[in-house]
Amino acid sequence: MAQTIIAQTALEELGNGRYQSIHPAEKMGKYARIAYGGCTIGVALRAAFRGVPQHLYMYSAQGNFLGPAQAGRKYVIHVKNIRQTRSFSTQFVEVFQKQDKEELRHCMILVADFQAQEKQSVLEYSSSPVLSYSSLQDSKTTEKLREQLLKSGHLNSGEAERHKQAFTLVSRFWDVRQCPEGIGSQNAYGVAKRAPTTQDDRSLVDKTTAEWFRSPCMLTSQEEHISALGLILDAGMAFMPLMHNKMYLDDVGVCSTLDFSLRLLTNGVNLNKWLLRELRAIAGGSGRTYSEQRVWDEDGHMVCALTEQNILRSKL
After folding, report:
1. What gap in Å lies between CA 110 and CA 95, rounded to an integer?
2. CA angle, corner 195, sides to 193 and 196, nearest 5?
3. Cα separation of 172 and 179, whole Å?
4. Which residues contact 158 (CB under 8 A, 6 or more apart)?
5. CA nearest to 278, candidates 243, 233, 238
6. 248, 176, 168: which is closest to 210 by C-alpha?
7. Of the residues 53, 137, 185, 284, which has the maximum number of CB atoms within 10 A of its CB?
């Protein structure tokens, strides 16, 4: 079992553009044998850096999940360069897992783009979060918020344990402080369905969840920062529309990521420092949801954005 983000996304080279994860995929909570999608994203992003010149920076990664990865199994990754110039590089990444009969099964494909640092920017700007959120010092850990909801009666002991198990992976890999203004901090990411929130008068598309996060272990390379970023940003995105609508995973049949787009807006994303992420549900229909997440540093500069389309299938 990996104890750090660096270890969870670490790879060993097999030769000819092939790699294998050192640690197996892990699940988030105890709901199924399906691995947490962020584990797949993390190893794919890390593999994308292999063979790319160090003077190039990743600015975009587009991924499609082709099937669920199984927890407890390692990944096999194939990487192919499909563009290489002095200023740009594009990597095509395929992520597999071995099945019982040793055959490889596709889990994901990813296209990652890299660009050299420009001499200067013609324009520099970024938008702000939808809401004004509390500072890091006034935001609380997931554990303290769970205790508060338990004491207030909005969580019973069984629900509190369920919430704890659901976020053990995040707690192991990340330092997180949840902003009290966000819905996720007020209803335990949807587990406390009965809990009132300060955003109950808002429409679903106007509701937000926000939290501060950073890596508890020192990250030293671009590939470590970006792969770690991919690992955490997937957390909560698929079921976020549910928790913003007083629902949870037990209210639906299937809820998981179909595709994602990660855009890096700076060449210096630093996960050793605290970052603020804000999650919003944008649209839903035809059995799918479309959600957005934006991330800022402590100075208020937006450093990246993640959009996802997820399947949301009703119970049969």
Report:
1. 8
2. 120
3. 20
4. none
5. 233
6. 176
7. 185
**Calpha distance 178→185 (Å, rounded):** 6
pLDDT, the chain, mean? 95
* 3-class secondary structure, 269: coil
> What does the pLDDT average to over 278-302?
98
Distance CA 190, CA 150 (A): 14
How much is the pLDDT for 126? Answer: 95
Which of 91, 82, 87, 97 is CA-nearest to residue 63? 91
User: What Å distances lie between residue 8 and 28, 47, 48, 287, CA to CA?
Assistant: 14, 13, 16, 32
Name the pLDDT band for 31 (thresholds 50, 70, 90): low
User: What's the CA angle centered on 33, arms 30 and 37, to 5 degrees?
Assistant: 90
Alpha-carbon span 279 to 240, nearest angstrom: 8
Q: Is the pTM of this model over 0.85?
A: yes
Q: Residue 264 corresponds to which tokens in the numbers above? A: 């890096």
Cα-based torsion angle of the residue sequence 260, 266, 268, 269 in order, rounded to the nearest 10 degrees: -40
Half-sphere exposure of 312 (CA within 13 A, CB side): 24
Residues 300 and 129: their CA atoms lie apart, in Å, by 9
pLDDT at residue 174, as a whole number: 95
At 107, the amino acid letter reads C
